[in-house]
Amino acid sequence: MRHWEADPILMVDRLTMQFGGLIAVNDVSFSVGRGDVTALIGPNGAGKTTAFNCITGFYKPTLGRLALSHGVPATDDELEALTSNGKAAAVTKGGSLFLLERLPDHKVSSAAKVARTFQNIRLFSGMTVLENLMVAQHTRLTRSGLLSPSALINLPSWQRQEKEGMAKALHWLELVDLVDRADDPAGDLPYGDQRRLEIARAMCSDPVLLCLDEPAAGLNPRESAALNSLLLSIRADHGTSVLLIEHDMSVVMEISDHVIVLEYGSKIADGTPKEVRADPAVIAAYLGVDEEAVADVEAEVGL
Amino acid sequence: MQAASREGSVSARPSPLATALKDAVASGIITWFLLLPLVGFRATESGSGPLGLTYRFGLVTIFALVVLGLRLTLHLTIWRPGRVKRAAGTPSVLSTVGERLAPFAKPAFFGIAIAYPALAILASGGLSESRYWVDLGVYIGSYVMLGWGLNIVVGLAGLLDLGYVAFYAVGAYAFALLSTSVPLNAFFDAHVGEGFWAAWSFWVCLPVCGILAAFWGVILGFPVLRLRGDYLAIVTLAFGEIIRLVLTNWTDLTNGGAGIASIPPISFFGMPFSAADNGFAATFGLTFDPMHRIIFLYFVILGLSALTALVTLRLRRMPVGRAWEALREDEIACRSLGINTTLTKLTAFATGAMFGGFAGAFFAVRVRFVSPESFTFVDSAMILAIVVLGGMGSQIGVAAAAVFMIGGMEMLRNLTFLKSDWLLGPDFDPTLYRMLIFGFAMVAVMVWRPRGLVSSRMATIFLKQRKKVSGDLVKEGHG
C-alpha cells in the first residue's frame, strides 16, 4: 500500500462541486498523506482551485466527504459512525476526526487546523508584517475569550501570552527572512516577499495541513528554489503536511511526494511524480498528442 | 549669437512680482467697474414712497480687493513662471506640516481639553458670562465621544453604519424612562432613602444605558451583518429611522412627539447642584452658581470621552481589535485564518453601540428633555462625516474633525460683521448660509486630504520601531 493510502491526513471521497449547470469538480477521490507534499496539478480550468476551496471551507461541496484526521488516522468504523451521526467532528482513539464539508469556514482553520494561501495574494496590506502574523494567531490568543478581561486590563498572564505570540511570529519571520521588514506595512513588500509572508502567516495558525494555491506564481527561478527549500523545511521541522496547486513543474517534480492530476473536473492520474510524468493521459492533457497517436491515447484513457 | 539674444530677452523681462502686481491691480480695477452697476447700486423700498437708491461702494471695493488678492496669490504660487510641479508620491506641504505638528498635537489637545472651562471663564471675564463657551464645549465633547464610538464600527471594523444615532436614542430614552419612572422612584425611596433616585439616577443608569444600547447593537447586528457595503448601509439607515418612528408612535411608553420632560438633573455623585444646604456649593463652601452644573457636565463628558478613547486604544492592541482591522483589510483572508467574522463584527457593533448609549444618557441628563426630533438621520450623517473627515480609525483626527465641524458650524452663527451696512446689510442672515459654507469647507478638505485629516495608521505592535502605515495602503472596508 502506498504511504498516502496507509496514513492519510485528508481523505477526499467522491467530491463533486456544481455551479448551476457547470460541474467544476466531478466525482474526485484522493488521499493526502500525512507528512507528504502533495501536488494538485492540471491545465487551467481543471477545477483545482474549486477543489481547494471545498477543502478549506470556502465552498460547500455539492456531494462528497472530506475527512481530516489529527493524530492516528481514523478507522473505517469511526469514519462511518461520524458520517452517519450528522456531526462535524469526533474524538477517535488516536486523535480526532473532522468532516470539513460540515464545518463553518472559520472552524476549518481554527478547529480542523487547515491553513491556506491564495492565488492572488491576500495579505492585510495596511497592517505591518508583524501584525499580519499576530492576526494569524487569533485562535490561540483568544482561547480565554474574544474580550477576555485579562487582555483588557493587560494582566501579566496576557502579557505572557502575547510574548509567546511575538516569539512565534519572530520565529517565522526568521524562517522567511523578513525580520528586517517586520515593522513595515505588508503592502510595501516586493511580490516575492509577500508570497513568503503569506506562507508564514498561514503557518502561524499552527496548521496540520497547509494548502498553497500556486505559491510559485510570479517568482523567478531563484525565488522558486528558495520556496522549495522553505516548503521542505516546513514539512521536515514542523510536521505539517502540504497540499499545493502549482503550474511550475520545477517545484512540483522536485519537492512533491505525490501528484494528482485533474482535467475538466475529473482525476486523470494519481501517483508519484515519476509515474505521473510518464502517464500518457497527463502528457496528452498538457501537450496534446500527434494526430496519428490520438486513437492510441484515446483507447488508453478509455474514450 | 542665438544664445546672446535669448539672454537679452531674459534680462528685458520684468520681475515676476511686478507682472503679478500689474495683472492683479488690473483685474481688481476691472472687477470694480464691472460690479459697480451690478452690486454698487441698489433699489430699496422706503416705506410707501417711491423706490430709493442706495449705494454700496464699500462692498464693491471689498469684492475688487478679494479678486486682486486672489489673483496676486495665484500668480505668486500656482501660476508662478518656472514652477516645478510636485511629483506624485512626494508629501504635500500640508502633510509635512502635519508630520511636524503631530508630536505636539496630542499633549496640546489634552491640555486645552482639561483647561478649557478655566480658559473660557478667563477669556469671557466671569463665571456666568462664560456659559455660552462652556455649553459649546459640552456640545462638542458629546460629538467627540459619538465620533470615537462610531470610529470603532466604521474606522476600525470598516462597517458602514448610517444609523448610529439609533443607539444614541436608545441610551437617551433608556435614561429618560428609568430616571422619571415613578415605581422605581418609590421603590428606592422606600428601601434606600428619600430622594436617592433623583440624586443618583444618572450614575446608576449610565452603565445600564450602555448595556441596553449594546444589546440593541447585537439585535440589529445579528441579522444584518451578513450584508456588505451599500446593503449594510441601507439596512442600518432603516434601523435608525425605525427606532425614531417607534419612539414617535409608541405614545404610551415614550409620550410620542411631545417627548419626555423633567428628567432629573445631574448630581455631583449624589450632591445636587442647588442652593440648598446639602447642595454642591454649600458643601464645598462656594457661593451657589448655576454654572457649577455646566462645568461639571463638561468634565463628565470629558471623562466619558477619555474612557471611550482609552478602551478603543486598548482594544486595538488586543486580538479582537486586530481582527477588526484585519476584517476591514480582507474578510476572506480573515476567514482562512480562523477568525469568526460574524462574532467579530458583532463585538465591533456592540462596542460602538455601547459608547453611543453612554453618550445618549449624557445627552438626556444635559438637556433634561428628550424627543424623537433629536435623533434624526442628519445627526447620524453628521457623526459619520466627523469620522470620515477625521481620518477613519484615527482618534486625534476624529476629535479635531468634531471640533472643526461642530465648533465651526457654531462660529458661522457669529459672523455678525457681515450685517454691517457697508457689506450685506442688516437683512443678511449668516446662519442661513452656514450649511452652504460648511459644505464648501468639507469639499475643500476632501480635495486636499481625501483620506481625512489624519490619514496614516499607527501599527499596534512592533519589533524595533513603531512605524506609520500610509493611508494609501490602508483599506476602507466594504462592510
Mean pLDDT of chain B: 85
List low-confidence stretches of chain A: none
What is the arithmetic mean of pLDDT of chain A?
A: 90
Q: Shape of chain A, please?
A: globular
Quaternary class: heterodimer
Biggest interface between chains = A-B, 48 and 40 residues
Shape assignment of chain B? globular
Share of β-strand residues of chain A = 15-25%
State the helix count of chain B. 18
Number of helices of chain A: 14
Taking the sheet with the most strands of chain A, its summary is: 6 strands, mixed
Q: How would a textbook summarize the main sheet of chain B?
A: 2 strands, antiparallel
Helix content of chain B: 55-70%
Class of secondary structure makeup of chain A: alpha/beta
Rg measurement of chain A, Å: 20 Å
Number of strands of chain B: 6
Number of strands of chain A: 11
Give me the secondary-structure category of chain B. mainly alpha
Quick summary:
With 303 residues, chain A is α/β, with parallel strands linked by helices. Chain A is 41% helix and 24% strand.
3D structure, described in words:
The complex is a heterodimer of chains A (303) and B (479). Chain A has 14 helices and eleven strands. Chain A is an alpha/beta fold and 303 residues long. The longest helix of chain A has 20 residues, at 156-175. Chain B is mainly α. Chain B contains 18 helices and six strands. Chain B has helices at 2-12, 16-40, 57-76, 93-124, 131-156, 165-179, 182-191, 196-224, 229-249, 251-254, 280-283, 291-316, 319-329, 331-336, 341-367, 377-390, 395-412, 430-448, and strands at residues 41-45, 51-55, 267-268, 271-272, 457-458, 468-469. A two-stranded antiparallel ribbon of chain B has the order 1-2. A two-stranded antiparallel sheet of chain B has the order 3-4. In chain B, helix 4 (93-124) runs antiparallel to helix 5 (131-156) and helix 12 packs across helix 13. The longest helix of chain B has 32 residues, at 93-124. Chain B is globular and about 85 Å long. The model of chain B is unreliable at 1-10 (pLDDT under 50). The A-B interface holds A 56-58, 105-111, 115-116, 118, 122-128, 130-131, 134-139, 141-142, 146-147, 151-152, 154, 166, 170, 173, 179, 182-185, 187-188, 201-202, 205 and B 314-315, 318-320, 322-323, 325-326, 328-330, 332-341, 343-344, 347, 457, 459-467, 469-470, 473-475.
